[in-house]
Amino acid sequence: MRVLLLWWVYIVSVGVFSASLSKSETISIGAIIVRKSVNGKVSEIALNAAVNDVNSDPTILGGRKLSLSIHDSNYNGFLSIVGALQYMETDTVAIIGPQGSTMAHIISHLANELHVPLLSFTASDPTLTPLQYPYFIQTAPNDMFEMAAIAEVIGYFGWREVTAVFSDDEQSRNDIAALADKLAERRSKVSYKAILPPDTIGTREEIEEALAKVKLVESRVIVLSTYATTGRLVFEVAESLGMMTSGYVWITTYWLSTLLDSVQISPEFAKSIDGVITFRPHVPDSDTKTAFSSRWNQLSNGTIGLNPFALYAYDTVWIIANALKAFFDHGGTISFSNNSNLSPIVGQSLNLGALSTFDGGEKLLKNILETKMTGLTGPIQFDSNRLPLRAAYDIINVARGGFRNIGFWSNYSGLSIVSPEVLYRKPANRSTSNQHLHRVTWPGETTQPPRGWIFANNGSPLRIGVPKRVSFKNFVQQVEGSNEIEGYSIDVFKAAVKLLSYQVPYEFVLFGDGIENPSYNELVRMVAADILDAAVGDIAIVTNRTKIVDFTQPYIESGLVVVAPVRKQNSSAWSFLTPFTPCMWGVTAAFFLLVGAVIWILEHRNNDEFRGPPKKQIITIFWFSFSTMFFSHRENTVSTLGRMVLLIWLFVVLILTSSYTASLTSILTLQQLSSPIEGIDSLLNTNQMIGYQIGSFAENYLLEELNIPRNRLVALGSPEAYAEALSNGTVAAIVDERPYVDAFLADRCQFSIRGREFTKSGWGFVFPRDSPLATDLSTAILKLSENGDLQRINNQRITKSSCAKNALTQVDQLQIKSFWGLFLICGVACSLALCIYFFRVLRQFLKHYADDPDPSTRSRSKSARIQTFLSFVDDKKDVSVSKLKRKRAEMSQVGNREDPSPSEEHMQV
Q: Per-residue pLDDT tens for 138-169?
């Protein structure tokens, strides 16, 4: 019995001791950093401080202790991999790092295989996605958000093209790819990419070579994505090349703000970055952040300043600690087992047998992703893509040896001068009017936002192609005896250039042999091929050209029209019938008779002027009807209904006579021109020849769009050739653009435009794709149009036709569809008046019928009753009453002769 008791005490003691050991066990976590880097230095200090704070609070891990091992990769990818393998061999439950995204891609494969969560606050490559790397977690904002912020700043200032300068590594390349996507959403683009050697190995000569090429491109908005070592050298070289002067825009990723926050920069470097915009991960102010900032000098011994990545490093340790707390609270134990995938190669030269899988890795990962806490960097929570729920940046402007905050960006509300914490309490508003930044000091110490681009070839004059026309020279021509170019198109271009806020050096280059008009399609292709920098002239904006170049806003409307010979059409003896169509004449005559008949009906019982023999009454109807045309009717209307109908009809007559008079005047006074060709449709229905101008897009349009056989087309080169071909019948008509046709018809009244324009387009100036000058000149052309200068140039350069008014299109006949509303109103008024009239007459007749003392009246047949009614209607109102009285008197006399009874006598009285 005593032996059993001793054995039980031994077992309990061993159990208590084992439990005590398990409670005081050490939990290993690792970190991979670059100790020489700025972020490596602050991270090491913050990581150690966080581990000490976690271990000093026994409520977090229940007496267990975190053990942090820090591995220095020393900018070496191989050493990063070695460090990760060492941690996997020593039962590490989580790894913080690596510092660079390139190694994060590689080490994440180890983490996936061995189920060890990998947390990094500096490897923020947008392509480190949870689908490919489920055990990798970014505890700081992903660079995709920073690229979105940069793109919104670029859009805020209206820049369309960007030059990207970046290091040749995984993170920088993917950052620029993300930037290009964000810019494309705002109709901007990365127009040039300059690749630098990877950080720490690039030489000054290599950077000089890359920036020298950047200096030659048009875009002056430069986005620099690199690291501190290379970044310093880039700005030193840029200043020596004169690339930190007025007109340039430099935007860097957060490496520069990190450098400014952490180290004391030299005056020389401060001067080289004057006017730069950079970004800093936004950390909201809080008591815990203030307290940690106060501790920082003690923790760092004043060797380095505090930057946001120190705060992210500190919070990363606490994310792991809280996840471990939840892990242990739910009964989790730390254990490792052999990886079955490594079994076939264990025992070979590689010591892979030491690598083991963390059995609780999946559960710990789940706890990390479910983190909801408030750290030094503010509220910490991950969204469905395993990214921090809210991402925000401070926008920093470096100027005059210091730097200042010019605004904020957040994925919630975009650009703002109000901190994101304030905006989170309001509904999201990303409208353009709600996007604001403070004033920026740009390179060259200017506060005026730079244009963002210059002309190619380092400011050399633009080579602008101008068609060397041999006809219609009022649009473009070379002044005889000089190299000067003039004309309507040239005047518009020069006036637009004067409205630009910057100088545009250019020189005109004539295109064509001077024998015949050049091919405008070829001129446009030369601009697309960069043989010419632009093209100015009477160049139509058509679809096939807009596919390869950009056009400015049209400065004159244009469109294809048909020109044909016409002859004067003399007025005939029956011209007075022309204003109305036959249908219109018929309806009008019918309504004259209808209204006359209605008025006769309404007035017949009351008005002596509408009574008499049938012949007279018919004449009265006709006379009254047509006399209203001239408002000369003699008959007076006495009934209310008749006056109402007549009033409405006279209004209709007024409109009809006014329209008829105006149309007849136009027909008799304007010269009427006739031609068998009435427009493009009638021309297509013939087999006659069609002329077009050499070099015009009309040829392709007729062939490709209208499918006219080529053997029907005749190329003509001048207005004189037009006139001759039309006069001698070589062509039946000419198809050309409206401005040319107007100039051709200026003094040739024997020809005329037939039909309407059957295409709509305009003339514009040609520039290469995405040229910012095309946009600026379009704005200038709109200003010319608004202030009237465009019309003034048009009046000076384009001769107006002296016979244009005579050659206007023929006057159209007036049709019933233009007046059916009036006729409808009149018809409804007549119908309503007749209904009211017959209702009243019927009521009077029934009363008369009931009062008739003659018993034979009630015994008549139906036809006799109708005849009686018609007779009643035909009688004048007072006549029918007198007839009734007379009949009563006659019946009274008959009754007296028959000795009527006293009651009957009383009734008669």
A: 999 999 999 999 999 999 998 989 999 999 99
pLDDT for residue 12 is more than 70: no
CA distance 493 to 476: 11
Q: What is the pLDDT of residue 765?
A: 95
Express each pLDDT in 87-133 by its tens digit. Answer: 877 889 999 989 888 888 889 988 998 999 999 999 999 998 888 99
Strand 402-410 to strand 414-416: parallel, antiparallel, or no bridges (unpaired)?
antiparallel
First to last CA, the chain: 152
Assigned architecture for domain 26-140+299-339+353-380: 3-Layer(aba) Sandwich (3.40)
Is the distance from CB of 224 to CB of 251 less than 8 angstroms? Answer: yes
Reply yes or no on whether the pLDDT at 903 is more than 60.
no
Q: Which CATH number fits domain 460-555+765-798: 2.30.38.10, 3.40.30.10, 3.30.420.40, 3.40.190.10?
A: 3.40.190.10
Nearest to 315 by CA among 380, 364, 361, 257: 380
Which range, of 520-534, 629-643, 843-857, averages the lowest pLDDT?
Answer: 843-857
Residues 6+ apart with CB under 8 A from 230: 167, 196, 197, 199, 200, 202, 207
757 close to 735: Cβ distance less than 8 angstroms: no
Are 706 and 695 within 8 A, CB to CB? Answer: no
Residues 6+ apart with CB under 8 A from 814: 579, 580, 581, 584, 659, 660, 663
Which of 496, 486, 500, 468 has its CA nearest to residue 764?
Answer: 496
Work out the percent of the chain whose per-residue pLDDT is above 90. 43
Nearest to 580 by CA among 817, 825, 807: 817
What is the signed CA dihedral for 775, 778, 779, 781, rounded to 10 degrees?
160
What DSSP assignment string belongs to 127-146? T--TTT-TTEEE-S--HHHH
Other beta carbons within 10 Å of 884? 16
CATH class of domain segment(s) 559-569+673-760:
alpha beta
Domain 143-285+391-434: CATH superfamily is Response regulator (3.40.50.2300)
Which pair of structure tokens corresponds to residue 112? 């996936």
Instruction: Give exposure, 245-266, as e/b (b: 16+ Cβ within 10 Å).
Output: eebbbbbbbbbbbbbbbbeebe
Beta-bridge mates of residue 27: 66
| 460-555+765-798 and 559-569+673-760, same CATH topology | yes
Maximum separation of any 2 CA atoms in the chain, in Å: 164
For residue 511, list its beta bridge partners: 467
What is the Cα–Cα distance from 448 to 173, expressed in whole angstroms? Answer: 31
CA distance 75 to 403: 29
Amino acid in position 705 = E
Nearest-angstrom CA–CA distance, 51 and 46: 9
Beta carbons of 652 and 822 less than 8 angstroms apart: yes
Q: CA 229, CA 235: separation in Å to the nearest integer?
A: 11
Question: Could you tell me which of 393, 316, 405 has the C-alpha nearest to residue 68?
Answer: 316
- Radius of gyration (C-alpha) of the chain in whole angstroms: 48
Nearest to 180 by CA among 162, 157, 165: 162
Domain locations along the chain = 26-140+299-339+353-380, 143-285+391-434, 460-555+765-798, 559-569+673-760, 582-669
Q: In the 3-class helix/strand/coil scheme, how is 671-705 assigned residue by residue?
A: CEEECCCCCHHHHHCCCCCEEEECCCCHHHHHHHH
